[in-house]
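Ticket opened by: R.M.
Priority: normal
Category: complex prediction / small molecule

The reporter submitted a protein together with iron/sulfur cluster and asked that the result be attached to this ticket for the collaborator who will pick it up next week. Submitted input follows.
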Amino acid sequence: MNRIGVDEARALWNEASDEELKQLAGEVRARYHEPNRATYMVMRIVNYTNVCVAQCDYCAFYVLPNQSGGYVLSREDVFAKIDELLEFGGDLVGFNGGFNPKLPLDYYCGLFASVRERYGERVEFYALTVAEFVFLADRAKLSYAEAAARLRDAGVHWVTGGGSEILTEDFRARHAKWKYTVADYFDAQRAIVESGLRTTATMVIGFDETLDERLEHLQRTRDFQDETGGLFSFLCWTYKPYGTAFGGREISPQEYWRWIALSRIFLDNVEHIRTSVLTQNEEAFRALDYGADDFDLPIEDEVTQKAGAHIDLDLEGLLEVPRRLGYRVEYRHAARPPALAGP
Ligand code: SF4
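Result attached by the on-call engineer:
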């Protein structure tokens, strides 16, 4: 099938049956992947601090700097969490925390350098999300290019596209006006790619976003990929509303699967479409029939767990679900990205 525009995507969303979406998404998936093969990683999000000044209304994780209950993990705590991940057979860490005004960019560079020194290439890590990167670069009064170079020199390979939720200025103003602007987000991610670091795209659905806002997010993501080619993958997960100021209800698995299909069809220039076991549990695997090809088995993520996510540590039991659906599942090691450039 040919590339579709926003109007065609809207029509597919409103009118196509599940079977039609599966078939079209399967066509695009087959350009990149064997039909019955799926890949996965075992990973842990290390939430190094819960202190945050961004005050997103959909977040149940943060505390303000002057409130009780705030923490910053010690390096020993971080190493212990990574050691436990290795015992589970995993090799990918995602660092993710709040916008803590007491932690400057130097703190992060020191932490990441120590992780690289201790684990070498045995463990790969997503150092920050683009959202955290914007905050840290701004506070350090560095350009995005300068901040990305500092991270790269500390041994960082990846800054992921996490923290993007819905990338429209209206959505940001409604829910996360202190976090970043969409323009800043993509300027930062462009600098990350140009510095030789790798990155990814993410999306979260199920707030109060309109269909047009979801489509704008996909359009911006595809445009960025056309321009830079820097996005390794696209991961969509679903909003967990429990304990948040915004509240709300969870969307159905069927709506999630259909959105994965539409994303696979629309993002014809992104190799990997990832489904979220973290927020959809066993229901996530059905998204492999809707165009997804890859997933994480997470062993911890405090941000989503605080908002109601449930983590199942029976990893072999989880893997039986895609096998029963007819997929051969293979571990995808989080090796050093071949396209990494720079000194
Ligand atoms: S989502 Fe992230 S940036 Fe927003 S309040 Fe929570 S921890 Fe802070």
